[in-house]
Amino acid sequence: MFKKLLYVRYLFLIVVIFMMLNSLFFIIGGVIESIEGIKIFITHGLDEEKKPGLKLLKGLDLFLISMVFMIFAIGIVRLFGIYKHNDDDSLPSWLNIGSFKELKVLLWETILVTLVVFTLTSIATDRSGLHWEMLILPGVILILSLSLFLMRKH
User: Fold this and answer.
1) Quick one: CA torsion of 38, 40, 44, 47, rounded to 10 degrees?
2) Cα distance from N-terminal residue to C-terminal residue, the chain
3) What is the pTM of this model?
4) Domain range enclosing 10
5) How many CA atoms does the CB half-sphere of 91 hold within 13 Å?
6) Gap between the Cα atoms of 112 and 98, Å rounded
7) Is there a contact between 73 and 23 (Cβ–Cβ < 8 Å)?
8) What would the pLDDT profile of 107-130 be if each residue is shown by its tens digit?
9) Going along the chain, which residue ranges are E strands?
């Protein structure tokens, strides 16, 4: 009975496939934004009105979001034993995920970096000036960072 129940883990393969597709789409979006930024830089230089750096920053943000999807997909594959491969030398050491807690911490760190880049992008692109609502994302980053620090302390 229990062995038949273990076949449910292969349903997570559908989740992994769609997460990898999401990651691929974000990578394509990041490449497009980066190419647009490079084109603007080549044609106009560091023109204040064209802002090629913002395009590159948006591309970086999309690449980081794709990493979140990819790491989560790889973590699901590793945790649920969908793909049995004992040769872990081909994976980077930071992707050797052995428990759900390790996956959670890795995703937590990746999401924090993504939030920092997203916050910098949104602050740089906001043309309405500085206002108090812009402190929401940095506050969220602070709370998540403190939570991660306290979790690691124990």
Assistant:
1) -100
2) 38
3) 0.77
4) 2-153
5) 15
6) 21
7) yes
8) 898 899 999 988 888 887 777 777
9) none
Number of domains in the chain: 1
Q: List per-residue pLDDT tens for the chain, 154 residues long.
A: 666 666 777 788 888 999 999 999 999 999 999 999 999 989 988 776 778 888 898 999 999 999 999 988 888 888 877 666 555 667 677 777 777 888 888 889 889 999 998 888 888 777 777 778 888 889 999 999 999 999 888 7
Three-class SS string for 58-74? Answer: HHHHHHHHHHHHHHHHH
Instruction: Evaluate the CA torsion angle 81, 87, 91, 94 in order and state its sign.
Output: positive
Instruction: Provide the CA 81 distance to its chain's centre, in angstroms.
Output: 23
| 114 DSSP assignment | H
Angle, vertex CA 143, rays to CA 119 and CA 131, nearest 5: 45
Q: Give 95-104 pLDDT, tens digit per residue.
A: 777 778 888 8
Q: Which two tokens stand for residue 130?
A: 């500085």
> Encoding tokens for residue 64?
């980081």
